[in-house]
User: What shape does this take?
Amino acid sequence: MSEYLVDINHEKLSFFTPAGEVKALNDVSIHVKQGEVLGIVGESGSGKSVTAYSLMGLTAHPGKLMGGTLEFNGHEIHNMSEKEFRKIRGNEISIIFQDPMTSLNPVYSIGNQIEEVILLHTGKNKKEAHERAVELLTLVGINEPEKRLKQYPHELSGGMRQRVMIAIALACEPKLLIADEPTTALDVTIQAQILELMMELKEKLGMAIIMITHDLGVVASMCEKIAVMYGGRIVEYGTTDDIFYNPKHEYTKGLLKSIPRLDAEVHERLVPIEGTPIDLLNPPKGCPFAPRCSRCMKICLKEMPPVTTFSDVHYTQCWMNQKAQMEGGENLG
Amino acid sequence: MDKKLIQVEHLKQYFPAGGYGKNKRYVKAVDDVSFFVKKGETLGLVGESGCGKTTTGRTLLRLYEPTAGKIIYDDQVIFDSEKKIKVDMLPYRKKMQIVFQDPYASLDPRMTIGDIVGEAIDIHKLATNKKERYDIIIEMLRRVGLNSEHANRYPHEFSGGQRQRVGIARALAVNPEFIVCDEPISALDVSIQAQVINMFEDLQAELGLTYLFIAHDLSAVKHISNRIGVMYLGKMVELADSHELITHSLHPYTRSLISAIPIADPKIARENKRIVLEGDVPSPLNPPTGCRFRTRCPYATAECAEKEPEWREVSAGHYVACHHYLQ
Assistant: This one.
């Protein structure tokens, strides 16, 4: 068993659509230790959700694993059957989806949906499951849990539903919680409540979290490590401080420059990343970011850059960095 | 820049929500809101979903007929419920335009981009012949960073950012003075948002446009706006110069809104103590008495439940509606 809870190495995953093969993930490696919070940032279609879904076996047909190994808590995910997946899903790994409005079943009561998970994965009987459900709702900060358990999703607000989703996810005290844009559909004041709650619960239960988001503000406050994804690849990986204060990849730099800052003193013009995200059906030959990169070189269009490492954790995939390091000029980045 | 281009006074927009006769109920989406937008400036409007910011924008253009209030555009009264003035909007549609939130839903999938942009030209008879019409269309597309070959394509062939550009080109086609931008960037990817924001700024500088910029993302609104209004449950709670609003906010709601925004800087984010508001926004069908924010306000007193706070100017250009506004 490896030292990591999540150990993904060189994962390749494609979706076989009528239009052709979509290479959603290309050589993605992710490692998460027990109790760690990893943020995955990137724009829509960059592969951030697919990476996390593949850990739960949610990418079946037309998705196909094309290579690499995925290990979670000693399980070899890449060799697992659907039957085996069912044992760990909701038990050892849980997920919170983006849209709390659609991820709860509208025709079952809240209580029913929470108890289902408990009855499925533990030896508890109905009465014990009910008690556990009450306990869980209290844990996620919902008042009058007994009353709420009898209610249906439409009777709850968005923030409340997301709390219920978290309660369901935590029902079996998972070792890993995947949060797929858990606050994107919520208002900022409710987002603040939910993020606070997640951090509190993490401290209390000691689980690891993979936080998928496009909001750099969310990862800045929550995560210890960050993976920046673009076009199905991790273009930069490092600690939160590495990414924010010492970004090396042009995409990461561009992303940081393109967001308006609330605490900006004077009005500075935003520096956008020109162009549009790549089409994964026809990915460029070299670096996926090359067509939009302001410092693109000839080689970038031809060959995928190798990994350049800066420290134990911090690495990028960029020819600029590779060149700078080969020339011995560490600061050129 | 001091001339008021558009001014609204005591604007109300109630939507019927079931019931008959005495029991008829209303959603008070916008309730007694007054503000003005100066010529050439950008007024930002922020608030959580359901606070009435989009309804305000649409009512302003009389896309919804206001329940009550007064709208003055360029010294002409275009709506007044007391004097029963309702002018014909067609000539004003040429001056006031809107860019919608969702670029996937706001373009007709069966029309080419050229026709979408050209429709406004036809309605207002801005072109005398086909050649002229085509030239205007190309000019508009070029202005938003698209080119002539795009005119014959359909919306599904474009990405979200490009579609939003088409939406902007459509609004620009009639040479408007005033544009309501209704969450124009929230459906776009982060890297594309900056492109669109910059384009709005460039167009404003080039054409002298006036914007009402509606969004829930306070950082983006702060970036683009000269002044910002904050709405909560159908009411305007604070309005001030954008820098002033961020640094010296007076209303407890504005403060919590600002502190709730995640800052993309780990060091600040770790130290930043968030003011986390308890609970959810109450239903606009049945808003709290007195001050509408009192149910979530940490400073609420008995007075807040009884009396509705007045909308007053506490310092030059800084308006707030709160009994106990913070110093």
Summary: Chain B has a mean pLDDT of 90.
